[in-house]
Design goal:
The complex is a heterotrimer.
Chain A lengths: L1 H53 L10 E5 L10 H12 L2 E5 L6 H11 L5 E4 L1 H9 L7 H5 L2 H5 L4 H5 L2 E2 L2 E2 L1 E3 L6 E6 H7 L7 H13 L11 E4 L15 H4 L6 E4 L2 E4 L4 H15 L12 H9 L3 E7 L2 H13 L5 E4 L7 E3 L4 E4 L6 H12 L4 H8 L6 E4 L2 E4 L32 H12 L1 E3 L7 H22 L5 H11 L1 H11 L2
Chain B lengths: L1 H7 L9 H10 L1 H19 L10 E2 L7 E2 L3 H8 L1 H34 L3 H12 L6 H11 L6 H8 L13 H29 L3 H9 L4 H25 L7 H6 L5 H4 L2 H10 L6 H30 L5
Antiparallel strand pairs in B: 1-2
Chain C lengths: L1 H43 L17 H8 L4 H29 L7 H13 L4 H10 L7 H8 L2 H12 L3 H9 L4 H12 L1 H16 L3 H6 L8 H10 L14 H27 L5 H5 L1
Helix pairs in contact in C: 1-13, 2-13, 3-6, 3-7, 3-10, 3-12, 7-10, 10-13, 12-13
Classes of the chains: A alpha/beta, B mainly alpha, C mainly alpha.
C-alpha cells in the first residue's frame, strides 16, 4: 500500500517538476524576446518624430520592400502575383504580402504582434483600429498627410480621412468608404399593392402592414411579414445599423450630446424607439424570429417571398439580392428606398490602412504606397481595377472588366480597394451596373458617418457585461416580456456600476 | 495504479530492491525506445508550450511585454455574476449532454448490433453517422427552419395534432432551449458516438454467447450479462476522457443561443467570447487564466471520477 | 412439450423485438435523413428556398459544375488528402506504440508516462506559447505544423490502450516463449488482433485531419498550403467571391450546399472499407436461430 502511494506521489512530483523546470528555462527566453521588442519600437518612434519636426520638406527616401498583411487583397489564383509585379514595374518597390484567411485575420495580426514578426502595413477596421492606435502600435501619419502632395491635389474627399482621426491624430488612411446598410424592399410587391416608397414612419408602417396582411405574394396564405433583421442590436458598432426606421434618432450606445457623453439607452429617444419596435412586433409586422436570425437567414427569407423589406449593404449587394431573388421568382425585383424623414442611414467609419511602428521608413511607405494607390490615376487604377490584360482590357477605346481568372462566371470587381467606394475623385473608366451606382448614391446622400468607436481599459472592462444586459433587455422588451419602462429601469439598476464607470471614463 | 497489476496480469513478480529495478528497466529497454517518439512529441508540442501557463498571472497583450499582475485575471473572471451563471450552465449542460450521449449511443449501438440483416445494419450505420460531418453552423441553420414558430415543421405537426394552440418559439424560450439543444446535439453526434462501442462489441468472443445460449440464456439476458459488462470498460474510459473536455463547450451553444435565453444557455466560452468582442486589446493573460481555471476544474472532475471508478470497479482508466 | 413452448415464446419475443427495432430505426433514419436531404436538394436547385423541400423545383447540377470547374480547389484538395493520409498514419503509429507501452504493467515508469499523457489532455499552454514554440521549431508555414502535434492524440491513445488490454495475456506469453522481440509481438500479434480498433480510431484521425481548419489558419499563411476546408470557406462560403452572384444567377446558398456535399463525399467512399472491421456479422443470433 505504502509503495503504491509512494510511486504515485513520485510520478506526480515528476510531472510538476518537469513542467516547472521547462517553465523556468523557457520562461527566460520568451521574456527577453518580449522585452527587446518594445524598446526597438520606442526608438523608431522617436526617430520618426525627430525627422518629422526638423526636416519637413526633405526628400523622402523610397522603400525597397514593403511587408504587408491584409486579407481583402485579391487571391493568388486571381492574379495576385501580376499585381505585385506590375507595382514593382511602376514604382520599383517589392511588395511582400501575407494574406491570412479572412475569418482569422485579426487573430493572425495579433499573433504577428505578439510574436514580434510585425509587418510594415496592415489593414484595420472598426474597434481594432482604435485599439491598435491607443496602444501605440501605429505610426502617427498626421503630418505626413497634412504635408502630402495628395492632400494638396484636392482630389481626396477629406471627410473620410477625418473620420479616422482620434483626438485630431491620424493613424490610418481609409482604403475606401465604409459603406453601410440601406432599406431594400420588394418592388414587385409594392407595384402589386399600389404602394409608393414611404416618406415617413406612418407610411412606412402602412407599407409593412400591406406586406403582412394583403398577401403580396398572392399564394392565398397569410405567410408574409413586413421587415426582418439579424437581431435587434448589431454585434459591433454601429449597433443600430439595421432597423433604421424604428431606431430613428435613438442610439443604443454611448454618444456625445451637447459636448458630453450620455448613455443612449437612458435617453427618451430610445424609449420611443423601443415602444415602436414593441408595437410593430406585437402587430406581426416584424419577423417573429428576429432574435434568432442570422444575416443569411434574413436574405433567404427575402428571396423566399417571406418578407418584404430588410436592411442590407448598399452597392453590389443590390445586384446580388436581385439576382438571387430572380433565381427563385423571375418576376421579383428589388428596390432600395431613401430613409424616411425621421432618420438617416449610417455609414461605418472606413477600414484603415495603417503603418506600424516597426516600419523602417514610414514616410516612404506613405508616399510611395498609400498616396500612390489613391492618386486618382495610374496607381489607383492598379489597386482598384488590377492589371491591364489580366483583370481588365481596353478595346475600341472602351475599358471593360475581364472575368476572374479562377471563377470565370463573374467579372473582376476589385484588386484591393473597391472602386465604387473610392474616396477620391477617381475617374473610373469601367462602367458599373446602374443598380450599384444608384443605391450607393442614394445611400451617400442620406447618411452620416458614424464616429469611430472609443477604446480604453475602463470601457473594455465594463462594456461587454453591459452589452450582454442591453441585448437581453431590448429583446425582452420587444417580444413583449417587459414593458419599456420596466425594461429600462432594470437595465439602469443592473447595469448601474458599468454605466457610471464608462461615462466617467468618456467624460474625463 | 499498482492494483491493476493484481487484477490484470496473472504473474506478479516479487518486489525487490534496487538491482531488481535495474533488471526490470533492462528487461523493458525496447519499450523505452519505442516510447521515445511519443515522449519527444509530448515534450515538444505539449510541455514546452506549457511555459505559457504562467501568463495566467500576467497581463499580456500584443503591444507590451507581459507584466505580472498576480490574481487579477482570476479576480476579473470571478467578479461578475454572469460568469458564475455561465459556469453553472456549462457544468449542467455538459454533464447532462455527456450522460445522454453515453446512454443513447450505447443503446443505439446495441440495437444496431441486433439488426440481423447485414446490409441493413451497414446502411443504418452509414446514415446515422452522416450528421457528424455537418458543421454546427449548418446544423443550426437547418434546425432554425425546422423549429421555426412561423410555419416550421415541428410547430405545424404539433398544431395540427392539437397538442399546442400557439406556435412555440423553441430557441427563444428558456424552458425549451435546453431540451432542444440536447436533442440537436444527439441528432448530430449519436451515430458517430456508436462507432467506438460497435468496435468494442466486435471484440467480444462469440464463444461467450454460445456458452450462454447453451445454458439457456435468452437474448436479453445475454445482453445484460455478457454484452454490457464487456463494453463497460470502454464506457467508463470514454466517460472519463470526455469529462476532461466538458468545460470546452462552445460552438454548439454559440450557434444556437440568443439574448433571450442567456440565462439558461450562456457558457464559459461564449461568455469569454463576448468579453473579447469589446476588449480594447486581446489579453492573452486573461484567456490563459480562463483556460487554467477550466483545466483545474476538469482535473478535479477527472480525478474524482477516476477515484470513483477505482472504488467501484477496482481500477481507474490508466 | 414444455421446452418447445418456451422456445416458441422466446421466438415470439424475438419477432416482436425485431419489429420494434425496425420501427425504431425507421424513425431514426427519417429524423436523420430529412435535414440531410434538404441540404442535398438545396444543392441541386438554383432557386433559393427557405423551408424543407424533398424535391428540387428546377433540378440542375450547375452548383457542382462551379465547384468542380474551380481549379483553385484542386491543389487544396490534394493537400487535404496528403494531410489526412500522413496524419492518420502518424496518428495511428503514435497511438499504437504509446498504447502498447502503456499495457506493460510491470514496466518501471509506466505510471509516470500515463500521467504525463493524461496531464496534457487537461492542461495546455494556450495559443501564443504554442505558436511561439512552432515558430522556434521552424514549423510555421509547413504542413508538419498541422500533422505532428495532432498526431499525438491522448484521447485516442487511451482508447487504443483499452482495446489492447483486451488481448488475452496468454498470447503475449507464448509469443515471448517463441522468441518474439517486443516489436515482433507488436507487429505480429497486437496489430493484427486490433483491426476494429485501428479502423475506428483511424477513422477518428482521418475525419479530424480532413476537417482541420483552425490550425491551418493559425500556422499557415502561405495560401499555396491551404487545405480544402480552408479554401472552400474562403472561396465559397464567404459571401465575397464565387457564390455571391454569378452571371448564371446561381444562388449562393446552392453553391454552399453543394460544397458541403462535396466535402463529405470522400468519406462516403472510404467509410465502407473501415466499416467492415467494426460491423462484422458477429450476431450470435445468426448461429442460433
Amino acid at each position: 500500500m505504502k509503495r503504491k502511494f509512494l510511486s504515485k506521489a513520485a510520478s506526480i512530483l515528476m510531472v510538476i517538476l518537469l513542467v516547472t523546470t521547462l517553465a523556468a528555462c523557457g520562461g527566460k527566453d520568451s521574456t527577453s524576446n518580449d522585452s527587446e521588442q518594445p524598446s526597438k519600437k520606442e526608438e523608431t518612434t522617436t526617430k520618426a518624430d525627430d525627422t518629422d519636426s526638423k526636416e519637413v520638406v526633405k526628400e523622402i527616401e523610397k522603400p525597397e520592400k514593403i511587408h504587408i498583411m491584409m486579407t481583402t487583397i485579391l487571391t493568388e489564383e486571381n492574379g495576385h502575383k501580376q499585381l505585385i509585379d506590375k507595382y514593382k514595374e511602376l514604382s520599383g518597390i517589392q511588395l511582400e504580402i501575407t494574406k491570412p484567411d479572412h475569418n482569422q485575420y485579426y487573430e493572425k495580426v495579433n499573433l504577428a504582434f505578439a510574436s514580434g514578426d510585425i509587418p510594415d502595413v496592415i489593414e484595420l477596421g472598426g474597434t481594432n483600429y482604435t485599439t491598435y492606435a491607443v496602444n501605440g502600435a501605429l505610426w502617427d501619419m498626421t503630418d505626413a498627410w497634412e504635408s502630402s502632395d495628395l492632400k494638396a491635389s484636392g482630389i481626396v474627399k477629406e471627410q473620410y480621412v477625418d473620420a479616422l482621426k482620434l483626438d485630431g491624430k491620424l493613424y490610418g488612411f481609409p482604403m475606401a468608404k465604409g459603406n453601410g446598410t440601406i432599406t431594400y424592399v420588394r418592388k414587385d410587391w409594392m407595384d402589386k399593392l399600389g404602394l409608393k416608397a414611404p416618406t415617413n414612419y406612418a407610411e412606412f408602417l402602412d407599407m409593412l402592414r400591406a406586406f403582412t396582411n394583403e398577401d403580396p405574394d398572392g399564394n392565398g396564405k397569410n405567410d408574409t411579414y413586413g421587415i426582418t433583421a439579424a437581431g435587434l442590436i448589431n454585434s459591433e458598432t454601429p449597433y443600430d445599423i439595421y432597423l433604421r426606421e424604428f431606431y430613428q434618432d435613438a442610439k443604443p450606445d454611448f454618444y456625445q450630446k451637447d459636448g458630453k457623453y450620455v448613455d443612449g439607452m437612458s435617453e427618451p429617444a430610445m424609449k420611443e424607439a423601443l415602444q415602436r419596435m414593441r408595437d410593430a412586433y406585437a402587430e406581426g409586422l416584424i419577423d417573429k424570429e428576429i432574435i434568432t436570425n442570422k444575416t443569411s437567414t434574413c436574405r433567404d427569407k427575402f428571396y423566399a417571398n417571406q418578407v418584404g423589406a430588410f436592411n442590407y449593404w448598399a452597392g453590389y449587394w443590390n445586384v446580388n439580392l436581385e439576382t438571387s431573388l430572380q433565381a427563385a421568382n423571375p418576376e421579383g425585383s428589388v428596390m432600395p428606398i431613401p430613409p424616411i424623414a425621421e432618420t438617416k442611414y449610417i455609414e461605418r467609419p472606413p477600414t484603415a490602412l495603417v503603418i506600424t511602428n516597426k516600419a523602417k521608413n514610414p514616410e516612404g511607405i506613405f508616399k510611395y504606397f498609400i498616396e500612390y494607390s489613391h492618386d486618382g490615376g495610374e496607381g489607383q487604377m492598379l489597386f482598384t481595377r488590377g492589371v491591364e490584360g489580366v483583370h481588365y482590357e481596353t478595346k475600341d477605346g472602351k475599358t471593360v472588366a475581364l472575368p476572374y481568372i479562377a471563377t470565370p462566371e463573374k467579372l473582376f470587381e476589385k484588386a484591393l480597394y473597391s472602386p465604387e467606394l473610392s474616396i477620391t475623385d477617381f475617374d473610373d473608366p469601367i462602367a458599373f451596373d446602374e443598380r450599384v451606382t444608384n443605391s450607393l448614391k442614394m445611400f451617400e446622400e442620406n447618411s452620416f458617418i458614424y464616429p469611430i468607436p472609443r477604446s480604453s481599459e475602463v470601457i473594455s472592462a465594463n462594456l461587454p457585461e453591459l452589452n450582454t444586459l442591453k441585448n437581453q433587455i431590448v429583446a425582452k422588451i420587444v417580444i413583449g416580456e417587459l414593458t419599456v419602462e420596466e425594461g429600462i429601469a432594470q437595465y439602469e439598476s443592473q447595469g448601474k456600476a458599468q454605466i457610471e464607470a464608462i461615462l466617467a471614463d468618456l467624460n474625463k | 495504479m499498482a492494483n491493476i497489476n493484481s487484477t490484470v496480469t496473472m504473474k506478479k513478480k516479487p518486489l525487490g530492491g534496487k538491482s531488481d529495478l535495474r533488471t526490470r528497466i533492462w528487461k523493458y529497454r525496447y519499450f523505452y525506445i519505442m516510447f521515445l517518439p511519443v515522449l519527444v512529441a509530448l515534450i515538444l508540442f505539449y510541455y514546452l508550450p506549457m511555459v505559457g501557463i504562467r501568463f495566467a498571472f500576467y497581463k499580456y497583450t500584443p503591444f507590451a511585454p507581459p507584466t505580472f499582475v498576480g490574481m487579477a485575471n482570476f479576480k476579473r473572471l470571478w467578479s461578475t455574476p454572469s460568469f458564475w451563471t455561465a459556469f453553472r450552465n456549462t457544468l449542467e449542460i455538459s454533464l447532462v449532454n455527456l450522460f445522454l450521449s453515453m446512454i443513447i449511443s450505447i443503446v443505439v449501438a446495441l440495437l444496431i448490433n441486433e439488426i440481423g440483416h447485414l446490409r441493413l445494419k451497414k446502411t443504418v450505420q452509414t446514415i446515422i453517422y452522416l450528421p457528424h460531418f455537418l458543421s454546427w453552423v449548418v446544423v443550426a441553420s437547418i434546425f432554425m427552419i425546422v423549429l421555426s414558430p412561423q410555419g416550421g415543421f415541428v410547430n405545424q405537426v404539433l398544431l395540427s395534432l392539437g397538442i399546442i394552440k400557439e406556435p412555440i418559439y423553441f430557441l427563444a424560450e428558456e424552458k425549451w432551449w435546453r431540451p432542444v439543444y440536447f436533442f440537436i446535439s444527439r441528432w448530430k453526434e449519436t451515430g458517430w458516438g456508436t462507432i467506438i462501442y460497435l468496435a468494442t462489441l466486435t471484440s467480444i468472443s462469440p464463444e461467450l454467447y454460445e456458452a450462454a445460449s447453451i445454458d439457456g440464456a435468452g437474448r436479453f439476458k445475454q445482453t445484460l450479462y455478457i454484452t454490457i459488462p464487456s463494453i463497460m470498460n470502454t464506457v467508463i474510459i470514454v466517460l472519463i476522457l470526455n469529462l476532461a473536455k466538458v468545460l470546452n463547450l462552445f460552438e454548439s451553444v454559440f450557434v444556437l443561443y440568443n439574448p433571450l435565453v442567456y440565462h439558461v444557455s450562456d457558457v464559459i466560452q461564449t461568455y469569454v467570447y463576448r468579453l473579447a468582442l469589446n476588449a480594447n486589446a486581446p489579453d492573452y493573460g486573461f484567456s490563459t487564466a480562463v483556460g487554467l481555471f477550466k483545466s483545474v476544474v476538469s482535473c478535479m472532475l477527472v480525478l474524482f471520477s477516476n477515484w470513483a471508478s477505482k472504488k467501484v470497479r477496482g481500477r481507474g482508466i490508466l | 412439450m414444455k421446452e418447445k413452448f418456451s422456445f416458441k415464446k422466446q421466438y415470439r419475443a424475438r419477432t416482436i423485438f425485431n419489429i420494434f427495432n425496425f420501427l425504431f430505426f425507421t424513425l431514426v433514419l427519417v429524423a436523420v435523413l430529412i435535414p440531410l436531404i434538404k441540404v442535398f436538394v438545396d444543392s441541386l436547385d438554383a432557386s433559393g428556398s427557405y423551408g424543407i423541400r424533398l424535391w428540387p423545383q428546377n433540378p440542375s447540377f450547375s452548383a457542382y459544375k462551379i465547384i468542380f470547374s474551380t481549379t483553385a480547389l484542386y491543389q487544396p484538395f490534394l493537400i487535404s488528402l496528403y494531410v489526412t493520409a500522413l496524419g492518420t498514419f502518424l496518428g495511428l503509429f503514435m497511438c499504437t506504440i504509446g498504447a502498447y507501452v502503456l499495457i506493460q504493467f510491470e514496466m518501471p515508469g509506466r505510471t509516470l508516462f500515463s500521467y504525463l499523457l493524461l496531464f496534457t489532455m487537461i492542461f495546455s499552454g494556450g495559443l501564443v506559447p504554442t505558436y511561439l514554440v512552432m515558430k522556434d521549431l521552424h514549423l510555421l508555414n509547413t504542413l508538419w505544423a498541422i500533422v505532428l502535434p495532432a498526431s499525438l492524440n491522448v484521447y485516442n491513445l487511451i482508447l487504443m490502450r483499452n482495446f489492447f488490454e483486451a488481448i488475452p495475456g496468454s498470447l503475449f506469453e507464448s509469443a515471448e516463449i517463441d522468441g518474439c522481440t517486443p516489436f515482433g509481438i507488436f507487429t505480429r500479434i497486437v496489430l493484427p488482433l486490433s483491426k476494429p480498433a485501428l479502423a475506428s480510431i483511424g477513422l477518428f484521425f482521418a475525419v479530424a485531419f480532413w476537417n482541420e481548419y483552425t490550425n491551418f489558419t493559425i500556422y499557415i499563411s502561405n495560401p499555396k498550403l491551404f487545405n480544402f476546408q480552408v479554401k472552400l470557406r474562403s472561396l465559397i462560403l464567404d459571401d465575397q467571391s464565387l457564390a455571391a452572384a454569378s452571371s448564371e444567377g446561381i444562388y449562393a446558398k446552392t453553391v454552399q450546399n453543394a460544397a458541403i456535399i462535396v466535402a463529405v463525399l470522400p468519406f462516403m467512399f472510404i467509410y465502407p472499407f473501415c466499416q467492415k472491421y467494426f460491423v462484422t456479422g458477429i450476431t450470435m443470433g445468426a448461429v442460433k436461430e
